[in-house]
Amino acid sequence: MNSLFRNRVFLIVAAADLLQQAGIWIRNMALLYYIMDETNNNPTAVSLLTVFEYLPIFIFSLLGGAMADRWNPKRTVIAGDALSAVSILIILGLVMAGWWQAAFAATIVSAVVSQFSQPSSAVLFKRHVPSEYIGTAIGITQSLMALFLIAGPVVGTMVYTQLGIQASLAVLIGIFLTAALIQLALPSTPRSPVEPGSSIWKEVRAGIHYVRRKPNLRTVSLMFLTLGFAIGITQPLDVFVIMERLSLPKEAVQWFGAAAGAGVLIGGGIAAATASRIERLGHKIIPATFVWMSIATIIEVISLWPLVTGSVRLLLGIALSFFQVVFGAMMIREVNEEFIGRVNGVVMPLMTAGIVLGAGVAGMLVRSVTLFGAYGASALLILLCAWISRRLQAASEANLVAKMDQARMEQ
After folding, report:
1. 134-183 and 103-128 helices cross at what angle (nearest 10)?
2. Which of 356, 355, 341 is nearest to 62 (CA)?
3. Which member of 60, 99, 254, 308 has the greatest number of CB atoms within 10 A?
4. What whole-number distance in Å separates Cα of residue 320 and Cα of residue 164?
5. CA distances in angstroms from 384 to 169, 288, 295, 370, listed in the order given
6. Is the separation of the CB atoms in 71 and 191 below 8 Å?
């Protein structure tokens, strides 16, 4: 653990992530309240914020991953934060001139930039953090993110209500510039020269082919698409469970989100301290997490007691942090460095597509089979993920056998 905290790349990436999480939450809350104020609580305008957040994932994720595999990761993460700061400065000028619609652009720019910078951060971890510390490093970064699941809405609300939209945007500029400056201290991480005749579209196709010929990655793709569909069904219905089953006002949703965030924080701390042991049990933890998610989904829709629902959210957060450590370490270790960005660009949009599809049918499900039917369908889909995830171990064993056969042939 001490060696990890002496690792310059880990400390810089973790600090930049912390700043970026602060910026994301200030942005999310400030833009939400600002758009509601400007449109007199128009739900269509508010929903557009979500659309503009997810749409760039479809459009730019694969392209961003391919470019991240080409570009120098240090320069990419610095340029990403610097570009965010400059774009928000322009948006601030438009807002000051009375163009409130420009606020939507802040969400779009942030989502687009993240499609390039996130895979570059994974490349930095892959190259500069020793393999035995990857799980611990991911556990610590997940814990830092969990802090903002708990405090983010409160901080973002306070900044906007006390300072207003213009000052909130100015704070964002300062945050992103600080993150860019911190990352100047990253070590040089040059990329291999691009092969003659290579093009970005050839590299995109190579990334898709890489995923298709890897059994584990094909399994992960199917698993994420199914999980996204399950999450998409319940995500927009959360507030109705809070109001109809627990008889609480809609504003109480934030406290159950905070309970989940507290679980991720606790679980991240445990996972960071016991990462090596957790990773050895990875083939059991991943399906077990899905089974617990399925059970928790049923308990949430049945429960009439806030304490029970909150406890389920807390335990689910702990389980999810274990899952994230195991899965994140597995992906970083199994994917070749030159394909990290493209694999991320292929797999993650599948989950986003599932969420969009699930959200699209959620209303229809509630009208036809009530909340219980909708949550039951989601629970069954999550159980299907548990069954799919069992193939990860089978694929790994097949790869191991193939390597042993190859070694025997070489002898």
Report:
1. 120
2. 341
3. 60
4. 35
5. 43, 12, 13, 22
6. yes
Task: Say which residues have a Cβ less than 8 Å from residue 266's Cβ, sequence separation at least 6.
Answer: 314, 317, 318, 321
Contact 268, 139 (CB under 8 A): yes
389-394 contacts at long range (C-beta below 8 A, 24 or more positions apart)? 389/219, 389/223, 389/286, 389/287, 389/290, 390/287, 391/215, 391/219, 392/216, 392/219, 392/220, 392/283, 392/286, 392/330, 393/283
Establish whether domains 1-184 and 204-411 are of one fold.
Answer: yes
Confidence (pLDDT) at 305: 92
Q: Which amino acid is at 46?
A: V
Cα–Cα dist 57/59, whole Å? 6
Each domain of the chain, given as residue ranges in start order, spans 1-184, 204-411
For residue 335, the SS3 value is coil
Q: What percent of the chain has pLDDT over 90?
A: 6
On the question of pLDDT at 383 being above 90, the answer is yes
Q: Which two tokens stand for residue 409?
A: 């042939």
CATH number of 204-411: 1.20.1250.20
Q: Cβ(101)–Cβ(165) under 8 Å? A: no
Tokens at residue 203, please? 């590299």
User: What end-to-end distance do the CA atoms of the chain give, in Å?
Assistant: 39
Cα 227 from Cα 326, distance rounded (Å): 17
What per-residue confidence (pLDDT) applies to 295?
92
Distance, CA of 371 to CA of 366 (rounded, Å):
5
If pLDDT is split at 50, 70 and 90, which confidence band does 298 have?
Answer: very high
In terms of pLDDT, which residue wins out, 383 or 131?
383
Alpha carbon of residue 351 to chain centroid: 10
Residue range 373-400: mean pLDDT, rounded: 76
Indicate the SS3 state at residue 138.
helix
| Amino acid residing at 61 | S
Q: Which of 236, 227, 263, 208 has the alpha carbon at shortest distance from 374?
A: 236
pLDDT at 401: 42
Superfamily of segment(s) 1-184: MFS general substrate transporter like domains (1.20.1250.20)
Burial class (CB in 10 A: 0-12, 13-18, 19+), 81: buried
In contact, 250 and 239? CB cutoff 8 Å: yes
Residue 312 has pLDDT above 80, yes or no: yes
Length of the chain: 411
Residue 381: predicted pLDDT = 93
Can you tell me the distance from the alpha carbon of 172 to that of 262, in angstroms, rounded to the nearest whole number?
25
